[in-house]
Amino acid sequence: MIAARSGAAAAEHDTQAAQPVPAGLAAQAGLAVQLPVVVLCGGFGTRLVEETSSRPKPLVTIGGKPILWHLMRAYGSFGCNRFVLCLGYMGEAIKRFVLDFELMDSSFTLDVSSGRVERVHLGEGVTGSAEASFADGWSISCVDTGERAMTGARLARVRCLVEGSRFLLTYGDGLSDVDIDELVAFHESAGAVVTLTAVSPTPRFGDLDLEGPLVRRFAEKERHDASWVNGGFFVCEPEIFEYLDDDDSCVLERDPLERLAKEGRLAAYRHRGFWQCMDTVHDREQLEDAWAQGAPWARRWAAWSRGAKMAGGPS
Predict the structure, then answer these.
(1) Is residue 36 helix, strand or coil?
(2) Max Cα separation, the chain?
(3) E strand or H helix at 306, and its extent?
């Protein structure tokens, strides 16, 4: 997750672009339905080497499931069903995860003699009975975008899969309870080429207000709106590709977003709800704690699952 790099660039236009969504616009349901979702999954995860020495960061688990699983389900709860995964470091592991996605996420019966596999629906009230159908209709593209490519190059290399349409974009190592429909509505109202989700995370250290040798104010890890950073969860128009190139060194958060900010074409949607990246072991522990306490990012699809079970499970 590149959290702070484009924060300053976006902030130049924040007061202009991050205005409230016009009345009634946010209430329009389903704005995100069927928009392609591009997920950047190729980084080395060097600050999480305790986990990423043996698996790519998107497969590091939260609550026993890869963070990528959580992320795709969060988008899926808004009706998104087409995913493009930009692979790099240990991309083959993510391919295996995708190939096994349906079976690993459901109960099934294997006919050993024929090799035929059938999903098993366990019935109303049984854990897992509705889980099997959550991803029905999904399309997942796994694209090798280069082991050492930067974020802009990875995005440029999947252009053919999203060209000509608005699409969603995010990092494969962060979770949030951002309302994607409201985010898309805001993007439409801002008239931007790219809208990023601006977040104000709790700082790692407290603030000191010093005057000479004295401390005039002491605030321990206080969250405030003075500093906004790029939290991912982008909405992009096809024009974004005019700012990218195919060179490995193209970093989305540098020249492309900086140029868009200078041109007044980069908007910032201020999200004050839950957001957490997974850059370090401490970040992973924060996400594990959030999962144990109800997982804000999972509430929509958890509600869907409960509703399906109350209806007797999938047919």
Answers:
(1) coil
(2) 81
(3) helix 299-310
Alpha-carbon distance of 3 to 51, in angstroms, equals 20
Strand extents, DSSP E, 9-166 = 37-40, 61-62, 65-66, 82-87, 108-111, 116-119, 139-144
More confident position, 131 or 50: 50
Q: Which residues contact 298 (CB under 8 A, 6 or more apart)?
A: 70, 73, 74, 291
Pick the CATH number of 7-18+32-201+228-310 from 3.30.450.20, 3.60.150.10, 3.30.830.10, 3.90.550.10: 3.90.550.10
**pLDDT tens figures, 110-160:** 889 888 888 777 655 444 444 445 677 899 999 999 999 999 999 999 999
Can you give the pTM of this predicted structure?
Answer: 0.81
Return the closest-CA partner of residue 40 out of 97, 99, 101, 83: 83
The secondary structure of 96-124 as a DSSP string is HHHHTHHHHTS-EEEETTTTEEEE----T
- Do residues 204 and 223 lie in contact, with contact meaning Cβ atoms separated by under 8 Å? no
121 is written with which tokens?
């629906």
What is the C-alpha separation between 80 and 172, in angstroms, rounded? Answer: 16
